[in-house]
Structure formats: C-alpha cells, structure tokens
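request received
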Amino acid sequence: MPETPETDPARIVADADVLVADLLAGDESGNPAREAMDAIRSHSWLELVASDSLLDDAEAVLADLADPDLASAWRERIEDLRVRVDHPPGDHPALASAYRGQAAHLLSADESLRDAGASAALGSRLNVSVKTPEGFVALFDAESLYEAAEGGSYPGPDRDPRA
Amino acid sequence: MNWADLFERAEPHRTDRETIRERLDARRDAVGGEGNGDETDDAEDSDA
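response:
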C-alpha cells in the first residue's frame, strides 16, 4: 500500500480552468473563481501550488479566448504568486501539482476529478480535497485555516488582492 | 502589471466557465492524447 503524503492545509492548487475563469468569467459578483483566487491573493500564508504544465495550460487557453499579450501579462503576474512544483510529463497537471506540492485543496470544475471513482483512485495516494470554486468559497474559513496552518490568532487579510 | 489592471484588460474578453472548461479539455486532449491513457493513473504511476 503506497503511503499517503501529509498535506499542508495552506497549500492550494487551482486547475487551469479556475485560473482562466478568475480573469475571464466576470467580476467578483457571480464569479466564484475570482472569489476563490481573491482569498488566496489576500493571505500571504496561503500558497498557490502549480507546475509549469498547469500554467502552460492556463496561458494557452487565455491566449485562445482573449489574446496572447494578456496571457503573457497574466503569466508574469501569476509567477510571483505560485509555488512551483515539478512532475513528469504526461501527468495530469492539477493532480500532479497537488501530489507533488502536498496541497490539501484542489479547485476544479472538472467533474471527473470529483466523482467517486476518481476519489477512490486518488485516496490511496493523494489526500486532497477536490472542490469547485463555489464549494471552496462556501467552506473557506480563514480563521480556522490560519490556526491549523500557522497557529495563533488570525490577523485578517494581509495582502492586497489587486496588487 | 497588477491584478486590477489584468482584470480590466480581461473584461472585454469575458467568457462563460463552460467554454473555458471545453477549451482546456480540448487542449489537454491535444497535448496529452498520444499514449497517455487515463489521467488519474498517469499521476499515480509517475509518482509511484
């Protein structure tokens, strides 16, 4: 039986669809991807874990649906936010980022990552909670997460999510 | 460029989430379609 790695409650993977929706699916009202990413951007102790492959996917979709210049500018900005992990070519970028980065949360609209079969398959190797951005936002409790991840009293948001 | 500027530049390109997901799936099918098989198993096997 393979070991299940310990996960870090402050480490989050956002699949490429969530990263793109953050930009293209509307403003704060009615865009859960923006709300979820704002939660990450607002707290310096939360870490966005992503491989190059995951960011490549998001950048390509952004270039396709918007324009290459915007995609390039986004890539430059997201590089400052993400914690980079490596994984073998061919791995699912989001799953492998979560595994390699020991992330406790994976945000994706991909139903195949959330169905029972995938959960069972992942359970033996990957102790990650797969949620939609809506689910993450609904359950996100910065205070208790801070206590679990950092210890002590939650000081509130410590970063400008628009900077 | 900060996030506020990025969001402003992105606004004219507003797209629904279903279209975003479809484009991502199409890209991953195109990039990983040659012999990668089941994605979940790929992650499992490579990390084994």
